[in-house]
């Protein structure tokens, strides 16, 4: 990972990701926060590309930007009154202290530990290898994930269904 | 500064995780809390992929498979949690987590 393009791309994408994430926590309007959240997700997709994780970068764009961000926007517009406010509660300063401690601790551990770094270049292409692994070594978690997604979809539908018998059946 | 190593990615992941943790603890709005949780999931995914890329392993793409499962669980969690947010708003007319204290003893 020595070529200049990758290094420049990493610093730009890292600045974009973290800057947008700080904005998500700082802006007062939740709709604007979701807009910045999309920038964060896009920056992360770029970082995945610099890690030669091509499949995960596409999945990131499809699932997080395409599905989860849109789902959050739907939840915001379905809860109209007072729900646009992104203000901090009474836990603001303890949370700030705890988050700072966590970040400092993890960064210290990351730079202090001697990682067993492998001497290899980025992956050529990951999609077929991931597909093989999902249907071979990880086939049981793969099947359980499908059940989990089915339960989540059914649960979400049942939760927000209108109350009372026969409502909306005609 | 002229070489990008594992530690740089881990630092980005740690900062992102801390921002998500701050949001999930400090935000007054239920949906703000959920945004923080999504951000923590993303930080974990970045860390998985960074380890997968850099660390010596006989099966280096396991991190990618783990990240796919994290994304799956995050999608399921988001769907159910946002349905709960809409339901709570319908019942209590608020999504402020400081006012949702029905279980307080």
Your description of this structure?
- Chain A has 170 residues and is an all-alpha fold.
- Chain A has helices at 4-26, 30-50, 54-78, 92-112, 127-134, 139-160.
- Chain A has six helices and no strands.
- In chain A, helix 1 packs antiparallel against helix 2 and helix 2 runs antiparallel to helix 3 (54-78).
- The longest helix of chain A has 25 residues, at 54-78.
- Chain B is mainly alpha-helical and 105 residues long.
- Chain B is built from three helices and no strands.
- The model of chain B has no long low-confidence stretch (mean pLDDT 89).
- The interface between A and B is large, with 89 and 78 residues.
Q: What sort of overall outline of chain A do the alpha carbons produce when their principal axes are compared?
A: globular
Largest sheet of chain A: none
Order of secondary-structure elements of chain B: HHH
Which stretches of chain B of 5+ consecutive residues score pLDDT under 50?
Answer: none
Question: Which bin fits the share of residues in helices of chain B?
Answer: over 70%
The percent range for strand residues of chain A is: under 5%
Round the Cα radius of gyration of chain B to an integer and report it: 17 Å
Q: Biggest sheet of chain B, open or closed, and with what strands and sense?
A: none
Please count the helical segments of chain A. Answer: 6
Strand content range of chain B? under 5%
Class of secondary structure makeup of chain A: mainly alpha
Count of DSSP strands of chain A? 0
The beta-strand count of chain B equals: 0
Flag low-confidence runs of chain A.
none
What is the CA-CA span between the terminal residues of chain B? Answer: 54 Å
User: What is the terminal-to-terminal distance of chain A?
Assistant: 62 Å
* Biggest interface: A-B, 89 and 78 residues
Q: Helical residue percent of chain A? A: over 70%
Mean pLDDT of chain B: 89
Give the overall silhouette of chain B.
elongated
Rg over C-alpha atoms of chain A, rounded to the nearest angstrom: 21 Å
């Amino acid at each position: 990972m020595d070529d200049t393009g990758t290094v420049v791309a990493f610093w730009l994408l890292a600045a974009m990701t973290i800057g947008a994430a700080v904005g998500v926590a700082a802006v007062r309007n939740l709709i604007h926060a979701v807009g910045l959240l999309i920038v964060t997700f896009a920056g992360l997709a770029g970082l995945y590309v610099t890690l030669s994780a091509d499949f995960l970068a596409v999945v990131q764009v499809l699932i997080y930007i395409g599905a989860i961000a849109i789902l959050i926007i739907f939840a915001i517009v379905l809860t109209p009154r007072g729900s646009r406010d992104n203000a901090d509660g009474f836990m603001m300063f303890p949370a700030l202290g705890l988050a700072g401690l966590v970040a400092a601790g993890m960064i210290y551990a990351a730079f202090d530990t001697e990682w067993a770094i492998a001497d290899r270049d980025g992956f050529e292409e990951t999609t077929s290898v991931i597909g093989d692994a999902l249907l071979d070594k990880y086939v049981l978690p793969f099947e359980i994930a499908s059940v989990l997604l089915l339960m989540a979809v059914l649960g979400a539908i049942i939760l927000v269904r209108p109350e009372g018998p026969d409502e909306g059946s005609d | 500064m002229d070489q990008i190593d594992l530690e740089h990615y881990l630092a980005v992941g740690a900062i992102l995780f801390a921002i998500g943790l701050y949001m999930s603890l400090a935000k007054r709005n239920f949906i703000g809390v959920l945004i923080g949780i999504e951000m923590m999931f993303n930080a974990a995914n970045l860390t998985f992929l960074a380890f997968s890329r850099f660390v010596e392993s006989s099966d280096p793409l396991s991190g990618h498979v783990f990240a796919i499962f994290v994304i799956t669980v995050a999608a399921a969690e988001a769907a159910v949690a946002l349905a709960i947010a809409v339901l709570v708003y319908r019942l209590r007319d608020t999504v402020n987590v400081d006012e949702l204290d029905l279980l307080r003893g």
